[in-house]
Structures are given as C-alpha cells and as structure tokens.
Amino acid sequence: MRTFIFWSWKFGSWLKSSLRVIKEQGKMASMLRQSMRTCPLNAWAARFAARSLTTSSSLQAQVQTKSKKSLAKPGVKNIVLVDGVRTPFLLSGTTYSDLMPHDLARAALQGLLNRTSLPKDAVDYIVYGTVIQEVKTSNVAREAALGAGFSDKIPAHTVTMACISSNQAMTTGVGLIAAGQCDAVVAGGVEFMSDVPIRHSRKMRKTMLSLNKAKSLGQRLSLLGSIRLSHLSPELPAVAEFSTAETMGHSADRLAAAFGVSRLEQDEFALRSHSLAKKAQDDGLLSDVISFKVPGKDTVSKDNGIRPSSMEQMARLKPAFVKPHGTVTAANSSFLTDGASAVLIMSEEKALAMGYKPKAYLRDFVYVSQDPKDQLLLGPAYGTPKALERSGLSMADIDVFEFHEAFAGQIMANLKAMDSDWFAQTYMGRKSKVGTPPMEKFNRLQKEGGQYGLVAACAAGGQGHAMVIEAYPQ
Question: Which of 81, 131, 163, 196 does the annotation list as catalytic?
Fold first, then answer.
C-alpha cells in the first residue's frame, strides 16, 4: 500500500471552501478546498473519500459583522481574496489521465481570468503549490501561466510543502503584498496523480549519463555491456516519510488507535462528509467549480469522487494499512486525485480601485511542525490555538471551521487532542485545552451570517498550517 501526498487541493478546496463558507455565513474550498490542497490522498482509497465539499458562494447571505470586532490593524495593509476557481477534482486514472499537470493548472488560471475579467497584465506574481513534480515542467506555475496567456514579464515560481503546498503558495502571495512588493498575486495548487514520474534505478541513470559522455564506440559498447537486469528496476516516488519510513495511512491508523478513535466513528464521519458533499453538489452549491473540456474527451463539470455509501457497505471493507485489526480503510480515507485551483489575492486598496468586491480578508496564519513519527497528522491541533492567539480570538468567535480531511481517523484524533487538557499540558505547554468546534460549524455550509473562519491542515513531515479569515463586509 502506498500513500501519495496531494495537493491540488492544496488549499484547492479546503482553504477556498472555508472562504466560500464564511462568505455564505457572510456572503461567503478542495486550495481553493482541497482545497476538497488539495490534500493528501492514499493510493488505494479507490471508492470513498473523507472529504467534505459542502460550500458555495451561490447563497447570498448578508454578513453580520456588527457583533464582532474587525481584525484590521492600524498601519497594516489589508489583504483580500477576490475570487477563486478550481477544476473538477477527479479520481486519478479517469478522464484527466492523458493530460499533464500544467494542463490542469492552465485551465484553472484561465477559469480565474474568465471569472474575474482580470487583465492579464494586472498580476504582479504567480505562485503554485505541488507535491509530486512533473520533471518536464518542474516550475509548473511558470509553464501554466505562459500557457494561460499571462505576460512573460510576470515572475512565477512553484513551492512544495506536502499537503499544504498551496497554502504555502497562498501565504507567500500574502507576504509579497504585505511587504509592498506586489499588489496582485495569483496563487494556486495542482496535483496529477494519474502520471507520477517514475525513474530508472540509480545504477541505470549513472550508466545512461555516462553514455552521453562516451567519446568512442568502444566506450559505449563497454557501458552497454555493464547493464544488468537489476539495473532495469524502476524507482517509484517516495510514499513513506523519509525520516520514519512509514506511510501516512499507517501513521493515521496508529494515531486513531492512540486517541481511541473507533472504526465506527471513522465510518460515520466519512459518511457525513460524502453525504454533505453530495447534497452540496446536487444543490448546485459548488460554484467555484469550472467546467473543463478535456481534449478528445467529454467536458467535465463536477467531481467524480463524491460517493455516499452506507454504514453496512463501509463496514465490509478490510483495513488498508494495519492488518488485520486496523481501522483505516478505503471508505474512510481520501482518494488519489487529479485537479487544480487558483485564487486572486490583492491588497484591498488595489481590489477596490479595480472595481472588485472581495470575498474575504486573509488575516493571521501560522505554520507548525512536530514529531513526524507519532504526531505526523496533528497539524490542526497544534496550529488552531496559535492562529487564534495571534488573532486575539477564541473558539467561540469562529463561525465556521474547515479542516483538511486526509483520513477520518486523522480528523477525529485532532478533535480529541484539541479537547484534551492532558494533551495541551503535556505536548503543547498550554494550561488547558483549546476545545473542539461544534459539528454544525465544522466543514459545513451555514446560511446565517458569520464573520470569522478558521482553516487548518496537517502535512507530511509532521507539519501543519492554520489561517484565520474574515468575511468581507457586504
């Protein structure tokens, strides 16, 4: 079994979904929400995902901001998210299978241009996040931008930080604007798990490189004669943590066991995610999704990995990692995905000058890191209290929470960690627990007005991210 780290969600849907949710709870995911960041997906989770696609900007509720203070700070530039789009997220190996990553990223960028009517020369910088890079287009941000018709005078670079790569792309854009380097940045994420790069073995690579340098026929024949059958064994992308040699799915299973998360709890949470996602899809609430005409194939208009099942069907699946007694299965894990997303970030002054009505302010954010062996997937538990403290907010102030769902067991373990005084005191140096979000605020669309949203995610390497967003007054 292998685990690949996604992120096209890369804030794809889960970050953008929280932005959309808060806008719905005040006119407002993938990363982008993944960000359905875009984010980690396991290679064998073929049928089900523990992702929630429950957001949209189609419901126009008015933001109720009078009851809470704004997080604006004197002398600090306000940075806003103007709008965002994503391609449909598809199971790898399906309709997108003959494309390349820059094709999907280009489609997202073109969709953003169409959605915002943004002049192509009005962007100062483009940043994309990805995890498994296509070697022919290692700076996929640049290639996708050129393909989408952006000026070749606009710099672009690509970042990677596992499941939070597009989060890093987005906050990089925030930093460029805050520093006065830029007024408008496009950030996004892309992942293409249908065609991950597979290398020759190291011995074969050395032989092939030596062949390029060989100056005579004799040298070439000698090198060719040195090739052995074992040299032809391919090298697949790493699917395990480099420092621990453990797959993410195995870590999720151990984490669930450590926090006493049962198989039943995980399956119930996964069913909730799929059911909410299906309802959002059927009701036309996923308004960030753009249609994409796949060359030589049909036009794709919706995600194909949303598949509500039943508790009885889910219970029949065998453990995917820790066998025979593990609790993580294909039904309560996220799936391998192909997809891309893009958002337009601006200084508030620039956005208003260009006639835009932003969707949200991007406020404080943090990155965290901890032990990758036993706490690999606890990024939200560590990042949430820090983001709240930086913003001067409490859990009760947050109107909607959007946590990246890699595994149902990972989500439930984070919630239990957040609700534990012992964990807070022993591992975080805090006097007491931060608490858990009410489930009616968790990865769900709410029509009533709201002001603050909190996005959080775990990532490979024991890292994590959290960000506070504020709905833009309507």
Answer: 163
Q: Which CATH number does the domain 3-195+239-467 belong to among 2.60.40.1400, 3.40.47.10, 3.20.20.140, 3.40.50.300?
A: 3.40.47.10
* Element at 459 (helix H, strand E): strand 452-459
pTM (2 d.p.):
0.84
What pLDDT score does 379 carry?
Answer: 97
Closest to 4 measured CA to CA, from 234, 207, 160, 214: 160
Provide the pLDDT for residue 126.
98
- Inter-residue contact 79 to 72 (CB < 8 Å): no
Q: Is 458 among the residues known to form the active site?
A: yes
Q: Where are the beta strands (DSSP E) in 176-228?
A: 184-192
DSSP collapsed to 3 states, 224-287: HHCCCHHHHCCECCCCECCCCCCEHHHHHHHHHHHCCCCHHHHHHHHHHHHHHHHHHHHCCCCC
**How does pLDDT run across 274-329, given as a tens digit for each residue?**
999 999 999 999 999 999 999 999 999 999 999 999 999 999 999 999 999 999 99
Residue of 61, 113, 118, 458 marked catalytic: 458
